[in-house]
Amino acid sequence: MSALRKMLNLPEKERTGGENKAASPQDYAASEPPADGGKGPSDPGWNAVGWAEESESTGRSFARRAGRVVIWSVIGLAAFTGVRTWVFPAKPPAVAPQVDVQAEALRNDVPVDEAQQVAARFARSYLSWSSEAPQLRARDLARDLPKGADPKMGWNGEGLQLVSQTIAGKVTQAEGKRARVLVDVRVSYTVQSDGKDASVSQWLGLEVPVAESGGRILVTGQPALVGMPTATDYKIPDIADTDAAMSNSTRQTVKDFLTAWAVGGEDQAAAPGSRIAPLGGGVQLDSLDSWAVDVGSGDKRTGTATVRWKLAGAQLQQTYLFTLTQVSANTGSRWQVSQVTATS
Protein backbone atom coordinates (compact mmCIF):
# COMPACT_ATOMS: atom_id res chain seq x y z
CA MET A 1 0.00 0.00 0.00
CA SER A 2 2.90 2.39 0.67
CA ALA A 3 4.05 2.08 -2.94
CA LEU A 4 0.52 2.93 -4.21
CA ARG A 5 0.36 5.90 -1.85
CA LYS A 6 3.66 7.19 -3.18
CA MET A 7 2.44 6.89 -6.79
CA LEU A 8 -0.76 8.79 -5.90
CA ASN A 9 1.17 11.29 -3.72
CA LEU A 10 -0.95 10.47 -0.69
CA PRO A 11 0.22 11.12 2.95
CA GLU A 12 1.32 8.22 5.07
CA LYS A 13 -1.34 6.61 7.20
CA GLU A 14 -1.14 7.74 10.83
CA ARG A 15 -0.36 5.05 13.33
CA THR A 16 -2.87 4.35 16.03
CA GLY A 17 -2.04 3.75 19.68
CA GLY A 18 -2.32 0.01 19.31
CA GLU A 19 0.21 -0.21 16.54
CA ASN A 20 3.85 -0.94 17.22
CA LYS A 21 6.09 1.94 16.23
CA ALA A 22 9.64 1.17 15.27
CA ALA A 23 12.17 3.60 16.61
CA SER A 24 13.94 5.81 14.16
CA PRO A 25 17.65 6.62 14.38
CA GLN A 26 16.75 10.06 15.75
CA ASP A 27 14.81 8.44 18.58
CA TYR A 28 17.82 6.46 19.51
CA ALA A 29 20.02 9.52 19.30
CA ALA A 30 17.78 11.41 21.71
CA SER A 31 17.57 8.63 24.23
CA GLU A 32 19.88 8.28 27.23
CA PRO A 33 22.40 5.48 27.46
CA PRO A 34 21.03 2.44 29.13
CA ALA A 35 21.45 2.40 32.88
CA ASP A 36 23.14 -0.94 32.85
CA GLY A 37 26.08 0.47 30.96
CA GLY A 38 25.06 -1.01 27.68
CA LYS A 39 25.99 0.36 24.35
CA GLY A 40 24.75 3.78 23.34
CA PRO A 41 24.55 5.70 20.09
CA SER A 42 28.31 6.14 19.97
CA ASP A 43 28.73 2.43 19.70
CA PRO A 44 29.42 1.43 16.14
CA GLY A 45 26.99 -1.49 16.30
CA TRP A 46 24.17 0.43 17.89
CA ASN A 47 22.54 1.64 14.65
CA ALA A 48 22.48 -1.78 13.06
CA VAL A 49 18.83 -2.31 13.95
CA GLY A 50 17.63 1.16 12.87
CA TRP A 51 16.52 2.63 9.47
CA ALA A 52 18.79 4.57 7.17
CA GLU A 53 17.49 7.11 4.62
CA GLU A 54 18.01 6.16 1.00
CA SER A 55 17.82 8.74 -1.81
CA GLU A 56 15.30 7.94 -4.64
CA SER A 57 16.80 7.44 -8.07
CA THR A 58 15.69 9.50 -11.10
CA GLY A 59 14.24 6.43 -12.90
CA ARG A 60 12.11 5.43 -9.96
CA SER A 61 10.85 8.95 -9.56
CA PHE A 62 9.85 9.17 -13.25
CA ALA A 63 8.12 5.78 -13.12
CA ARG A 64 6.21 6.81 -10.02
CA ARG A 65 5.05 10.06 -11.63
CA ALA A 66 4.13 8.34 -14.90
CA GLY A 67 2.14 5.67 -13.10
CA ARG A 68 0.34 8.36 -11.16
CA VAL A 69 -0.61 10.14 -14.41
CA VAL A 70 -1.87 6.88 -15.97
CA ILE A 71 -3.99 5.96 -12.97
CA TRP A 72 -5.59 9.40 -12.69
CA SER A 73 -6.21 9.42 -16.46
CA VAL A 74 -8.04 6.08 -16.27
CA ILE A 75 -10.12 7.30 -13.32
CA GLY A 76 -10.95 10.56 -15.15
CA LEU A 77 -11.91 8.76 -18.35
CA ALA A 78 -14.18 6.34 -16.48
CA ALA A 79 -15.82 9.23 -14.66
CA PHE A 80 -16.34 11.20 -17.88
CA THR A 81 -17.83 8.31 -19.85
CA GLY A 82 -20.11 7.44 -16.96
CA VAL A 83 -21.45 10.96 -16.64
CA ARG A 84 -21.86 11.27 -20.42
CA THR A 85 -24.01 8.13 -20.55
CA TRP A 86 -26.16 9.58 -17.77
CA VAL A 87 -26.76 12.82 -19.66
CA PHE A 88 -26.76 11.38 -23.18
CA PRO A 89 -27.92 7.76 -22.99
CA ALA A 90 -27.03 5.58 -25.96
CA LYS A 91 -29.83 5.35 -28.51
CA PRO A 92 -30.81 1.94 -29.86
CA PRO A 93 -29.89 1.42 -33.53
CA ALA A 94 -32.62 2.45 -35.94
CA VAL A 95 -34.43 -0.52 -37.47
CA ALA A 96 -34.75 -0.24 -41.24
CA PRO A 97 -38.40 -0.60 -42.34
CA GLN A 98 -39.21 -3.83 -44.16
CA VAL A 99 -40.17 -3.16 -47.78
CA ASP A 100 -42.37 -5.67 -49.60
CA VAL A 101 -41.00 -5.37 -53.13
CA GLN A 102 -43.88 -7.29 -54.68
CA ALA A 103 -46.54 -5.24 -52.89
CA GLU A 104 -44.77 -2.01 -53.84
CA ALA A 105 -44.69 -3.07 -57.49
CA LEU A 106 -48.39 -3.94 -57.44
CA ARG A 107 -49.23 -0.46 -56.15
CA ASN A 108 -47.51 0.98 -59.22
CA ASP A 109 -49.12 -1.44 -61.67
CA VAL A 110 -52.13 -0.79 -63.87
CA PRO A 111 -55.10 -3.07 -62.99
CA VAL A 112 -54.85 -5.91 -65.50
CA ASP A 113 -58.54 -6.68 -66.03
CA GLU A 114 -59.51 -3.06 -66.52
CA ALA A 115 -56.53 -2.41 -68.81
CA GLN A 116 -57.47 -5.39 -71.01
CA GLN A 117 -61.10 -4.27 -71.21
CA VAL A 118 -60.21 -0.72 -72.27
CA ALA A 119 -57.53 -1.87 -74.71
CA ALA A 120 -59.87 -4.39 -76.40
CA ARG A 121 -62.62 -1.80 -76.79
CA PHE A 122 -60.19 0.79 -78.12
CA ALA A 123 -58.64 -1.70 -80.58
CA ARG A 124 -62.07 -2.44 -82.06
CA SER A 125 -62.72 1.28 -82.63
CA TYR A 126 -59.17 2.01 -83.78
CA LEU A 127 -59.15 -0.61 -86.56
CA SER A 128 -62.75 0.06 -87.68
CA TRP A 129 -63.28 2.81 -90.23
CA SER A 130 -65.52 3.95 -93.05
CA SER A 131 -64.87 6.89 -95.33
CA GLU A 132 -68.64 7.46 -95.44
CA ALA A 133 -68.94 7.96 -91.65
CA PRO A 134 -65.58 9.13 -90.25
CA GLN A 135 -67.23 10.83 -87.26
CA LEU A 136 -68.33 7.47 -85.82
CA ARG A 137 -64.75 6.28 -85.35
CA ALA A 138 -63.69 9.58 -83.79
CA ARG A 139 -66.59 9.47 -81.36
CA ASP A 140 -65.78 5.95 -80.19
CA LEU A 141 -62.06 6.65 -79.80
CA ALA A 142 -62.61 9.83 -77.79
CA ARG A 143 -64.24 7.77 -75.01
CA ASP A 144 -60.87 6.27 -73.99
CA LEU A 145 -58.50 9.13 -74.91
CA PRO A 146 -57.32 12.01 -72.69
CA LYS A 147 -59.05 15.34 -73.18
CA GLY A 148 -57.67 17.25 -76.17
CA ALA A 149 -56.20 14.19 -77.93
CA ASP A 150 -56.63 13.85 -81.71
CA PRO A 151 -59.41 11.24 -82.29
CA LYS A 152 -58.23 10.52 -85.85
CA MET A 153 -55.17 8.74 -84.41
CA GLY A 154 -53.30 8.72 -87.73
CA TRP A 155 -56.16 7.63 -90.04
CA ASN A 156 -56.39 9.52 -93.34
CA GLY A 157 -60.21 9.19 -93.59
CA GLU A 158 -60.34 6.68 -96.47
CA GLY A 159 -61.27 3.02 -96.94
CA LEU A 160 -63.61 0.57 -95.22
CA GLN A 161 -62.68 -2.00 -92.58
CA LEU A 162 -64.70 -3.82 -89.94
CA VAL A 163 -63.60 -5.62 -86.75
CA SER A 164 -65.41 -8.83 -85.87
CA GLN A 165 -63.51 -9.84 -82.72
CA THR A 166 -60.89 -8.64 -80.24
CA ILE A 167 -59.00 -10.72 -77.66
CA ALA A 168 -56.94 -8.90 -75.04
CA GLY A 169 -53.80 -10.74 -74.00
CA LYS A 170 -50.49 -10.00 -72.30
CA VAL A 171 -50.17 -6.83 -70.18
CA THR A 172 -46.62 -5.48 -69.88
CA GLN A 173 -46.34 -3.20 -66.84
CA ALA A 174 -44.17 -0.07 -66.90
CA GLU A 175 -43.30 2.50 -64.22
CA GLY A 176 -45.69 5.21 -63.12
CA LYS A 177 -48.93 3.20 -63.51
CA ARG A 178 -48.39 2.71 -67.23
CA ALA A 179 -48.64 -0.46 -69.31
CA ARG A 180 -48.89 -1.93 -72.81
CA VAL A 181 -51.68 -4.35 -73.71
CA LEU A 182 -51.40 -6.84 -76.57
CA VAL A 183 -54.71 -7.30 -78.38
CA ASP A 184 -55.50 -9.83 -81.13
CA VAL A 185 -57.94 -8.24 -83.61
CA ARG A 186 -59.94 -10.01 -86.32
CA VAL A 187 -60.53 -7.57 -89.20
CA SER A 188 -62.52 -7.89 -92.44
CA TYR A 189 -62.17 -5.82 -95.58
CA THR A 190 -62.97 -6.02 -99.30
CA VAL A 191 -60.46 -6.65 -102.08
CA GLN A 192 -60.73 -6.93 -105.85
CA SER A 193 -60.30 -10.45 -107.24
CA ASP A 194 -60.83 -11.13 -110.95
CA GLY A 195 -62.82 -7.95 -111.26
CA LYS A 196 -65.09 -8.84 -108.37
CA ASP A 197 -65.23 -7.75 -104.75
CA ALA A 198 -64.10 -10.39 -102.29
CA SER A 199 -64.26 -10.22 -98.50
CA VAL A 200 -61.04 -11.04 -96.65
CA SER A 201 -60.61 -11.65 -92.91
CA GLN A 202 -57.38 -11.90 -90.95
CA TRP A 203 -55.92 -11.55 -87.45
CA LEU A 204 -53.76 -8.55 -86.57
CA GLY A 205 -51.71 -7.95 -83.45
CA LEU A 206 -52.11 -4.49 -81.86
CA GLU A 207 -50.21 -3.17 -78.83
CA VAL A 208 -52.09 -0.45 -76.98
CA PRO A 209 -50.36 1.92 -74.48
CA VAL A 210 -52.50 2.66 -71.42
CA ALA A 211 -52.14 4.45 -68.09
CA GLU A 212 -54.18 4.94 -64.92
CA SER A 213 -55.26 8.55 -64.37
CA GLY A 214 -58.09 10.10 -62.42
CA GLY A 215 -59.38 6.73 -61.25
CA ARG A 216 -59.73 5.17 -64.71
CA ILE A 217 -57.68 3.67 -67.55
CA LEU A 218 -56.89 5.84 -70.58
CA VAL A 219 -55.11 5.19 -73.87
CA THR A 220 -52.08 7.47 -73.76
CA GLY A 221 -50.76 7.27 -77.31
CA GLN A 222 -51.07 5.71 -80.74
CA PRO A 223 -51.32 1.91 -80.78
CA ALA A 224 -48.86 -0.02 -82.93
CA LEU A 225 -49.34 -3.06 -85.17
CA VAL A 226 -47.11 -5.95 -84.04
CA GLY A 227 -46.45 -9.46 -85.28
CA MET A 228 -48.61 -12.47 -84.47
CA PRO A 229 -47.21 -15.68 -82.93
CA THR A 230 -45.90 -18.25 -85.37
CA ALA A 231 -46.02 -22.05 -85.25
CA THR A 232 -43.50 -23.92 -83.11
CA ASP A 233 -42.48 -27.55 -82.62
CA TYR A 234 -44.48 -29.90 -80.38
CA LYS A 235 -43.94 -33.59 -79.71
CA ILE A 236 -47.19 -35.56 -79.72
CA PRO A 237 -47.40 -38.02 -76.80
CA ASP A 238 -47.05 -41.66 -77.63
CA ILE A 239 -50.33 -43.38 -78.50
CA ALA A 240 -51.48 -45.95 -75.96
CA ASP A 241 -51.96 -49.56 -76.97
CA THR A 242 -55.46 -50.40 -78.21
CA ASP A 243 -57.84 -52.91 -76.67
CA ALA A 244 -59.31 -54.30 -79.93
CA ALA A 245 -62.05 -56.38 -78.33
CA MET A 246 -63.25 -53.50 -76.16
CA SER A 247 -63.15 -51.13 -79.13
CA ASN A 248 -65.37 -53.41 -81.25
CA SER A 249 -67.89 -54.05 -78.46
CA THR A 250 -68.38 -50.34 -77.64
CA ARG A 251 -68.22 -48.79 -81.11
CA GLN A 252 -72.02 -48.72 -81.58
CA THR A 253 -72.44 -47.22 -78.08
CA VAL A 254 -70.24 -44.28 -79.03
CA LYS A 255 -71.97 -43.83 -82.41
CA ASP A 256 -75.42 -43.77 -80.80
CA PHE A 257 -74.24 -41.18 -78.34
CA LEU A 258 -72.83 -38.93 -81.11
CA THR A 259 -76.11 -39.10 -83.04
CA ALA A 260 -78.11 -38.11 -79.96
CA TRP A 261 -75.55 -35.47 -78.94
CA ALA A 262 -75.89 -33.65 -82.28
CA VAL A 263 -79.68 -33.25 -81.91
CA GLY A 264 -79.63 -32.42 -78.18
CA GLY A 265 -80.71 -35.83 -76.82
CA GLU A 266 -77.41 -36.78 -75.18
CA ASP A 267 -79.04 -37.37 -71.77
CA GLN A 268 -80.63 -40.55 -73.09
CA ALA A 269 -77.30 -41.96 -74.26
CA ALA A 270 -74.96 -40.76 -71.46
CA ALA A 271 -74.21 -42.50 -68.18
CA PRO A 272 -76.38 -41.57 -65.17
CA GLY A 273 -75.12 -38.44 -63.38
CA SER A 274 -73.11 -37.18 -66.35
CA ARG A 275 -73.25 -33.49 -67.32
CA ILE A 276 -72.63 -33.19 -71.06
CA ALA A 277 -73.99 -30.05 -72.73
CA PRO A 278 -75.67 -30.46 -76.16
CA LEU A 279 -73.84 -29.33 -79.29
CA GLY A 280 -76.60 -26.99 -80.46
CA GLY A 281 -78.50 -26.67 -83.71
CA GLY A 282 -77.12 -27.06 -87.21
CA VAL A 283 -74.81 -30.01 -86.45
CA GLN A 284 -75.38 -33.53 -87.78
CA LEU A 285 -73.28 -36.70 -87.49
CA ASP A 286 -71.89 -37.79 -90.84
CA SER A 287 -69.72 -40.71 -89.69
CA LEU A 288 -67.62 -42.19 -86.90
CA ASP A 289 -64.37 -42.62 -88.80
CA SER A 290 -62.39 -44.37 -86.04
CA TRP A 291 -62.77 -45.55 -82.45
CA ALA A 292 -60.03 -47.07 -80.25
CA VAL A 293 -60.19 -47.91 -76.54
CA ASP A 294 -56.93 -47.77 -74.58
CA VAL A 295 -55.69 -50.89 -72.85
CA GLY A 296 -56.74 -50.83 -69.19
CA SER A 297 -58.98 -52.30 -66.51
CA GLY A 298 -61.72 -51.31 -64.08
CA ASP A 299 -65.15 -49.77 -64.53
CA LYS A 300 -63.77 -46.62 -66.29
CA ARG A 301 -62.02 -46.73 -69.66
CA THR A 302 -60.83 -44.09 -72.10
CA GLY A 303 -60.85 -44.08 -75.88
CA THR A 304 -60.24 -41.83 -78.88
CA ALA A 305 -62.84 -41.15 -81.59
CA THR A 306 -62.41 -39.45 -84.96
CA VAL A 307 -65.77 -37.92 -85.92
CA ARG A 308 -66.99 -36.28 -89.12
CA TRP A 309 -69.73 -33.65 -88.71
CA LYS A 310 -72.01 -31.99 -91.26
CA LEU A 311 -72.07 -28.27 -90.60
CA ALA A 312 -73.13 -25.29 -92.75
CA GLY A 313 -72.98 -27.29 -95.98
CA ALA A 314 -69.51 -28.65 -95.20
CA GLN A 315 -67.92 -31.63 -93.50
CA LEU A 316 -65.66 -31.06 -90.47
CA GLN A 317 -63.57 -33.85 -89.01
CA GLN A 318 -62.67 -33.68 -85.30
CA THR A 319 -61.00 -35.89 -82.69
CA TYR A 320 -62.42 -36.48 -79.18
CA LEU A 321 -61.32 -38.19 -75.99
CA PHE A 322 -64.15 -40.27 -74.51
CA THR A 323 -64.52 -41.66 -71.00
CA LEU A 324 -66.72 -44.76 -70.69
CA THR A 325 -68.30 -45.90 -67.41
CA GLN A 326 -69.66 -49.39 -66.75
CA VAL A 327 -73.25 -49.15 -65.51
CA SER A 328 -74.83 -52.13 -63.77
CA ALA A 329 -78.55 -53.01 -63.78
CA ASN A 330 -80.72 -55.95 -62.81
CA THR A 331 -80.37 -57.49 -66.24
CA GLY A 332 -76.61 -57.01 -66.44
CA SER A 333 -74.13 -54.20 -67.18
CA ARG A 334 -73.22 -52.01 -70.13
CA TRP A 335 -70.78 -49.25 -71.05
CA GLN A 336 -72.03 -45.67 -71.38
CA VAL A 337 -70.36 -42.32 -72.17
CA SER A 338 -69.66 -40.23 -69.04
CA GLN A 339 -67.37 -37.52 -70.45
CA VAL A 340 -66.32 -36.04 -73.82
CA THR A 341 -63.36 -33.64 -74.22
CA ALA A 342 -60.86 -32.55 -76.79
CA THR A 343 -57.64 -34.53 -76.91
CA SER A 344 -54.67 -33.10 -75.04
Automatic annotation (TrEMBL):
Region (Disordered): 1-50
Ranges annotated as spanning the membrane: 69-88
Keywords: Membrane, Transmembrane, Transmembrane helix
Alphabetical list of InterPro entries matching this protein: TcpC, TcpC_C
Highest taxon, organism lineage: Bacteria
Any Pfam family: TpcC
Gene3D superfamilies: 3.10.450.540
Keyword Glycoprotein: no
Keyword Transmembrane helix in record: yes
Full protein name: Conjugal transfer protein
Native source organism of the sequence: Streptomyces yaizuensis
Lineage of origin: Bacteria, Bacillati, Actinomycetota, Actinomycetes, Kitasatosporales
